[in-house]
């Protein structure tokens, strides 16, 4: 690796990945300012290069601020009752992020990272890769009735145990350039953090072992330090084969999560002992209470006494208890039904929490899409969901929305899942989210050249005829057509077709600032979903009179209620009209620096307002010819321009 020099372009590119308003460390600098003070990037590049060349590092740059958050107040001040949250200096995260990017480029260029390690690996699906490979092995073992021995290894405080000397040796072994290696070594020597409980400081702690957590470089350093373990395990030539000539799989890793595979008891003991010896050399210990092993003979679980290691420790067989590997419960196979139950309960619990909150309509949908849906999406391609199960989850979501007055029970289902810019509410459908992820995984596996993923493709675990984008486009188009073709629900869409600017028509939806209850009611009204007398008589074929219950003259439709009923023309309609005019008048007063109330709803429009900027009138305009309608709502007179504003609210 050539000597590294940081350029202005590197800083400008990397700073875009820094979060704008995350809590800063001792520098008290938010990422927002680094993104917008572009003129500083050149000077920052110069100072960063001085650090790389000279190896000198300021104390504040490598000092974190660790806040100890009490988990349970009833348990008092016991050390184990505190959760540490460390805030690192923003400048430190920027600098280490640039270095991490360069090291990643080098690792990819030289193909140094092992396929078995998916932590922090670019162009991979991370844990989903490992879960797919693991699922393939388990199903292959069952179908072939083969022998398989597996061990799950859990490290005790892995990120806090790794010695800095191991990291330095591994960096040197893979050929990291001298100035970066020296900088990292000096940086680790100066690592420290200041402990806080509330606003009270409890002093500085030097970090002599382990890595920082919260920057981009530290996890990469951990992965580099674990490369020798993968190399040693590969050279044992042990592991499971899905067929006679296939690639041997001895282990899978995601950061410190390690799973070992062997064909025989001897193989799994040898692999486990190899891992133990390596771990001991780098001062890392097994968390034996969380380690487990299982043995399969001809595809079925057999009793096992566990793995007895030379140092006297034993990894127990936790049968019949299942083991949670990367969030998925498994033993001899994935526990599909149990995972479905747990995941479904977690999903509905999150949806319920969101709907109970006071978020507006737009943020409610966004919260469901970004906090609840990912719980289900993570299992896509791993758990075998049926169409009925996914439909039931969608039905449950709509029911919860109805219970919390966010969705009318007769509202259009297709419209709910359309984007807001197209007139929908933008909710992600559970079934669509799962299918999209399955299509994306199938496309990814199909294009992969990694031996283990080629085996996944050959086993045909993922079946998809379309790409993710094709599926998404087809689904959205079908949904839009269904909504448009419905007699009642699509009536509003027919009325505005070719007559209105759709982008502006749906602006209130894309803004998403209305209450979720109001949003649901407006959409129900547009879709003719509210049970008016006309709907009851003509659609439901009841014996009710279709006439308006107020004026008794015309059919009681939504259009009639909104703008055509004579009984409320001088009351509700007039009040609605005046509110709109009042808000416009208030905004104009602010624009032209005329007297106005603090809030628009307290504003009382005067007949005449005037200053050096403009005049505002609210009375009849004298004209040469007689005009029947000569009283606009608001008249604004500027120096060279006159605005005549008239408010009309249509149904």
From TrEMBL:
Is this entry keyworded Heme? no
> Which keywords does this chain's UniProt record carry?
Coiled coil
The UniProt entry's coiled-coil ranges are 427-474
Using the record, list the residue span of the signal peptide; answer none if the entry has no such feature: none
Q: Which CDD domains match?
A: RT_nLTR_like
Question: What residue stretches are annotated with the Reverse transcriptase domain?
Answer: 50-330
- Please name the InterPro entries in this protein's record: DNA/RNA_pol_sf, RT_dom
Does Coiled coil show up as a keyword for this record?
yes
Lineage: superkingdom: Eukaryota
Identify the PANTHER family for this entry. Answer: REVERSE TRANSCRIPTASE DOMAIN-CONTAINING PROTEIN (PTHR35450:SF2)
Q: What is this protein called?
A: Reverse transcriptase domain-containing protein
Origin organism is Anolis carolinensis
Organism ancestry: Eukaryota, Metazoa, Chordata, Craniata, Vertebrata
